[in-house]
Amino acid sequence: MEQLNNDICYQALKTRDRRFDGRFYTAVLTTGIFCRPICPAVTPKRANVEFYPSAEAAIAHGFRPCLRCRPEAAPGSPASAGVHATVARAVRLIDQGVLETGSIADLAERLGVGDRHLRRIFKEHTGVTPQEHAKARRLLRARQLIVDSNLSMIEIADIAGFGSLRRFNDAMKQAYGQAPTAFRRGVKPRTSSPVKDDDPFAPRNDDLVLRLRARQPFDAEYLLAFFRARAIPGLEAVRDRIYARGFAMGDQVGLMICHFSPDQSGVEVILRGPAREAVLEIGARVRRLFDLDADVPSITAQFSDDALLAPLIEKRPGLRVPGCWDRFELAMRAVLGQQVSVAAARTLAGRIVARFGKALPDDLVARTGVTHLFPAPAQLANQELISIGLTTRRAQTLADVTDLFADPGCDQKAGETLIADLTAIKGIGPWTLNYFGLRGLGDPDAFPAADLGILKASSMGGGPDKAKALDALSESWRPWRAYAAQYLWSALEGEG
Asked: Region entry Disordered: which residue ranges (predicted)?
């Protein structure tokens, strides 16, 4: 897909091309409102519009979000997420509320850069300052929670970071011109398929429900098949259009049940238990877990003339790269998966969960098949892992990974630093590093060329059957080799 300019944006606006949803926003000078490119409103004249790379940038320039197309519900834009590594980390920390209690200088110190440098690169990549981003995110989060969740207004004001209901009401009226309650009154009741009263995956009256949209096209069927084959017994449950797992946020535990929409438009997330209060962080994790924001048409355009990949893209145009819920959990999975089948790795991980994971309350998870959490690094430190059926060498590698993640500062490490630390651990090679980068870090260019499945798929499609030759061929797929890997894995569907 071409680099966006104003002419391309206006053409996409006129045709309401869904492939551009979330990639830019249209501000209408005559109304002071900004919209998504798919907005059903009458297309404004070219002279009356300006284009912005993110909703935050449009808000910072004084425009109000459209009430019809709801910019806050659009898939995440590259500009909003930040394409520079430091900016991406800054956006993540701001979204977690770091500026609610600290300053730009504090944020810059945490990122290891100067505050002036942070302001400069942040505006360069997102179009707004860090403070403007934080303010806009509060507004966008709040309206998303009003329309897409069943939270009360007091809960939304607190979770979105307004501090008080009065501040929340004033800010929303100023930004949208209406009281927050008006948005919920204007939402049409959502209809869902009838569920049996004894269905453990159906929402309860006190559950929190959050609805997340996916950038189109979105292949939910393949994602569910991927997670079903790898679901760890006791930790995860995968049913028809359902993915569920236990999770913890700090000292609080919860159950997450994800219902994939029949029309593949997105995911309805049911949150049960006290940990549900971290709904915004949970929502962000779910978006990464299912790769909901991937701009697949732009990515696959690079593969359109590739003899090996083009037929696979035609078969599954909305394929995503599955992410992870937790980096430590994924690192352990990756080590367990070395040189064994998917089923064998799943069995070993299930033994770790059953033996060392924290049991969840029965009233939280009854009849779901979910029973335990994946153990935290501190819980696994100094435990004897050979007993689950591992070799001495593999058990030591897992112990070293546990020690790495048990370091309190590990959560703040950049991806490249974490990869370097993992590289230094004996028993971790290129396959494990690339698999961890692909799923654990969301690196779009990670490519485990030595993976036996990928090599088999390549050979089936007439490509190289040796890692070195495939790695050389993959140079033409940069920087989207993770998606190429996923397409090659998809070619093995139905293989024994």
From this structure: 180-200
